[in-house]
Design goal:
237 residues; alpha/beta; 8 helices; 5 strands
Length: 237
């Protein structure tokens, strides 16, 4: 008998790999995408594509964080470009959305309770996470405790698990795992500042980490880059 799991799915490289991992582990998956007012809302279309391709139940919910602002993804703040890779692990960039993963995990937890599911799968990654504090193992462990203490299911004995299979992998390792699981990365989206037609800018943190991952994995990058986008000089592919 399969176990139920809610997979937080942004439509990006990491969360898509997580979905493939969960299916391979025998979970009956339901995916959850969150429209939080992000400037790269095109990722929601990618989440729908990924879920349809994987033939899993997909749910989308809106919680508009633009009213709070404080991030280049939810406010009129320029997305940083050309940041050195080594700087991404040292600095928390302006693309950090205040408490985003706390909000997203809370929504996934609420959805899981409605499904009588006790497993949540999320794509947090500590090595190639642009320095986001809510991608650390300590945060995940703390939220797992919150899930057990702050829900009816937890109060009646359910043991919630937050699975983060990518937490200790770099992008190249994630891509290799996804390739082994048959992931089609061409249908995913990672860019924080895409062109109007959806082409990736190639220069934001998400694009640079994704491109680096494919290079280090020795695999062709299927990403469609804008050519050129806002003077970045990206090469079309």
């Amino acid at each position: 008998m399969s176990k139920r799991a809610v997979v937080l799915l942004s439509g990006g490289l990491d969360s898509t790999t997580c979905l493939a991992w969960a299916l391979a582990e025998g979970f009956e998956c339901s995916t959850l995408a969150v429209d939080y007012g992000q400037r790269h809302r095109i990722e929601l279309e990618a989440a729908r594509r990924v879920s349809a391709t994987s033939r899993v139940e997909h749910r989308e919910i809106a919680v508009d964080l633009r009213g709070l602002g404080g991030s280049a993804l939810t406010a009129d703040i320029e997305v940083p470009k050309h940041r050195p890779i080594e700087a991404m692990a040292r600095e928390i960039p302006v693309t950090y959305v205040p408490a985003r993963n706390t909000v997203l995990l809370a929504l996934a937890l609420a959805y899981a309770e409605t499904l009588d599911a006790h497993d949540i799968v999320a794509g947090m990654n500590v090595l190639d996470s642009s320095g986001y504090p809510d991608c650390r193992p300590e945060f995940v462990a703390a939220f797992e405790q919150v899930a057990r203490l702050g829900t009816r299911a937890g109060a009646t004995g359910a043991k919630f698990r937050i699975h983060t299979p990518l937490i200790a992998l770099d992008k190249a390792g994630i891509i290799r795992l996804g390739q082994a699981l048959g992931v089609d990365y061409a249908i995913t989206h990672s860019c924080y500042d895409p062109a109007p037609d959806g082409g990736a800018c190639g220069d934001c943190d998400a694009c640079r980490l994704r491109r680096k991952g494919f290079e280090e994995a020795g695999l062709p990058d299927p990403t469609r880059y804008a050519a050129p986008h806002r003077g970045t000089g990206c090469v079309s592919s």
